[in-house]
Amino acid sequence: MSDATLNTSRAAGTQGPDKQAAAMGETGKPVAFRGGGFAPRSPKWVGVAVFVVLIAIAEWGTRTGWISALTLPRPSDVLATFQELYQSGMLFKHLGPSLARLAVGALIGVSVGVSVGVLIGLFSYVRAGLVPLVAAIFPIPKIALLPLFVIWFGIGEGSKYALIAFGTFTPTVVATYGAVDNVDRTLIRMGQSFGLSWWSIVRKIVLPGAMPGILSGLRISLAIAIILLVAAEMLGAEYGIGAYILQAGSLYDLERLFAGVVILSVLGVVTSTVIGLIERRVLGWRT
């Protein structure tokens, strides 16, 4: 090797990667980064488009007679019913008590359920004592217990709170201790090898690792809470979405009936959106 060639090689070795590529000449194409993980991103307009198409089909079908007016009302008539509810003030008169019952009952059931689920996931004696009990009460239809709650707590608000709380408690417990069990044990052993205390491992490893499963269970629990809310309000409630739907059904008023169903659907979408915002806020470390 000549001195000129050796000096050229040394000069290229002391340059950075970009300068080396420029000096040597780029013959290949840049490779796209492929390590972004599995993070699907759905365009927001797709979901809105699906709703618009379904509503348009229902409107067209009811106007042309393809869909009987005895089975499905016109979406335009349901919208007019919404406007009437809003202008008369009855919308908030029914929606306010329902939101209050849902918030109180779900808050009690979810908070107690998460606490019990974490205890079951962390302590063997608690697991041995409570898992059989949870397995025994989980399959019971919670709506069937409504008469019992009425006897225990009366026909007022107490029985409604108790039914919603009990209905959200059991799925939250199951989701929580399942999420704690699924935390990667390698991370826990790593924390132990670094000398972290038990509480530090729980706070920094177990709870963050279990949070995705807990929030997924929360979606199911809140959906169950909305179902039980309607059932509870159909018994002994003057105001509420469930009472409104019961009144409309007894009068065979399809417009009012579907207006109540749409309110419940919107309530479900709102709760799911709120949980999604919490997930993005709490689980930002996954991206």
Automatic annotation (TrEMBL):
InterPro entries attached to this UniProt entry: MetI-like, MetI-like_sf
Where are the residues of the annotated region Disordered? 1-23
Determine if Membrane is one of this entry's keywords.
Answer: yes
Q: Name one GO cellular component term.
A: plasma membrane
Q: Which UniProt keywords apply?
A: Cell membrane, Membrane, Transmembrane, Transmembrane helix, Transport
Q: Where is the composition biased (Polar residues)?
A: 1-12
- Which SUPFAM superfamilies does this chain map to? MetI-like
CDD domains hit by this protein = TM_PBP2
Query: Manganese among the record's keywords?
Result: no
Family recorded in the similarity comment: Belongs to the binding-protein-dependent transport system permease family.
Instruction: Report the function annotation for this chain.
Output: Probably part of an ABC transporter complex. Probably responsible for the translocation of the substrate across the membrane.
| Protein name (Swiss-Prot/TrEMBL) | NitT/TauT family transport system permease protein
- The species this protein was found in: Pseudooceanicola nitratireducens
